[in-house]
Specification:
The protein contains 14 helices and no strands. It is mostly helical and 422 residues long. The chain folds into two domains: 1-214, Growth Hormone, Chain: A, CATH 1.20.1250; 230-422, Up-down Bundle (Growth Hormone, Chain: A), CATH 1.20.1250.
């Protein structure tokens, strides 16, 4: 297989192997920590999580990516990236340990969320540092393309594996506050391993070059804000990219609203015990992940035949038809099938949108446009959580929300199909 051959070539590079190992350990820890946070907020026996509490957890996980993402590079260009990976993971290990202690201590919720928010905020710098370091550990532009394709994919798989490990540990332990704390400590241990493994690389290996001119911090932040505004203006001039990005933002919003619905259903409507609900959520995550994988396989073929915008319209239309049919019964099996369908359609549309933006936007503006893309992608999910809070009853059975999301998907499909015809 070409992917296996490419990976074999990259793995002959010692420094790439080390950087990849740091990524795998770090993102596996992310998966563990995120599942631990969800388990504690939603499924702990002593907590009666409302949709508002679930939405707050989603905001904690995603807002740092949205707000800090565009500015992370300004600071990364001022620090040794090896030290960012070392100190960042070390700091996350310490903060995750504090989170575990706060869980056991049964402190006020705001203090717990502050600790969790700190962990995910540091994560933005670590992931940006991993991406910025890749050109320093490969020896040609051709291999850099391979590395940019394979390294994030491997990290996503590591995060999924970490989440699966967290589910197993949580389900295997007795139902208590201590079981949630142990899962958090498992994530802290993986963060510590990632930080210590980064020390195997020399300090200056990953850059940045000390001779390169760097603006003052305030100047750098101002340049970043100005660059985002310029990227937005450039995007407005590229109608194809702007339409695709708008469609993807609305699809991400819909996916977020349905995710909050699924969490609430697993917690209250379908489970006798918290363990039952957590197991159902694990199944949903697994089948949704299978949908993401199916999208990666199907999208190149479908986009070649339907066109990229046509494939986005097809994904939205499929979701519009199947989502209410599978979701309105509010039964586990049809909903799990819906999770697969939505995983496939959402990821399929995202792959097509990424390609449209890359092809339609001038290279000089591509980084700024993708920074905006990242902000919209995560803010849409958090916004959907807020809207779901207003619409969901305590058990999660809201026909109004399901139908509203179906209407949004249908509107996306019609708008994209009309744009393709024009």
């Amino acid at each position: 297989m070409p992917v296996v051959r490419d990976l074999r070539v990259l793995l002959t590079l010692r420094d790439f192997r080390r950087l990849l190992a740091v990524r795998l350990l770090s993102q596996a820890a992310d998966g563990v920590y995120q599942v631990a946070l969800a388990a504690y907020v939603v499924f702990s026996p002593e907590k009666q999580a409302s949709p508002a509490a679930i939405a707050a957890a989603m905001a904690v996980l995603l807002l740092p990516y949205s707000l800090l993402g565009p500015f992370a590079g300004v600071l990364l260009d001022r620090w040794h990236r090896r030290q960012v990976l070392f100190h960042g993971n070390l700091l996350r290990a310490a903060l995750a340990t504090v989170t575990a202690l706060l869980i056991v201590g049964k402190v006020p919720d705001w203090l717990f969320y502050a600790s969790a928010l700190s962990v995910t905020a540091v994560n933005r710098f670590v992931l940006a540092g991993l991406s910025a370091s890749l050109p320093r550990v490969v020896d040609s532009d051709e291999r850099l393309v391979m590395a940019n394709s394979l390294s994030p994919t491997a990290g996503t798989l590591a995060a999924t594996a970490g989440g699966g490990l967290a589910f197993v540990v949580r389900l295997a332990s007795a139902e208590s506050t201590f079981s949630d704390a142990w899962v958090v400590l498992l994530g802290a241990a993986l963060y510590l391993c990632a930080g210590l493994y980064a020390l195997r690389m020399p300090v200056g290996l990953l850059g940045p070059d000390s001779s390169a001119p760097r603006p003052e911090l305030g100047t750098g932040l101002a340049i970043t804000l100005r660059g985002l505004a310029e990227g937005l203006r450039h995007l407005a001039e590229r109608r194809i990219a702007a339409r695709a990005l708008a469609a993807m933002t609305l699809m991400r919003f819909s996916y977020g609203a349905l995710t909050i619905t699924l969490l609430t259903l697993c917690r209250y409507a379908w489970s006798v015990t918290e363990t039952d609900g957590l197991a159902l959520l694990g199944y949903a995550v697994a089948v949704s992940g299978a949908g993401f994988f199916a999208a990666a396989v199907l999208t190149p073929w479908a986009a070649a035949r339907l066109g990229r915008l046509g494939w986005i319209a097809t994904c939205a239309a499929t979701a519009a038809v199947l989502e209410p049919g599978l979701g309105l019964p509010f039964e586990p099996v049809p909903t799990l099938i819906a999770a697969f369908v939505l995983g496939l359609t959402t990821q399929g549309a995202k792959i097509a949108t990424d390609t449209v933006v890359q092809a339609s936007v001038d290279d000089a503006f591509r980084g700024r446009v993708f920074a905006l893309y990242d902000v919209l992608f995560n803010v849409a999910f958090v916004g959907a959580a807020g809207v779901a809070v207003l619409m969901l009853p305590p058990d999660g059975r809201s026909a109004v929300l399901v139908v509203t999301v179906a209407v949004i998907y249908a509107a996306i499909a019609l708008a994209m199909a009309g744009f393709c015809r024009r």
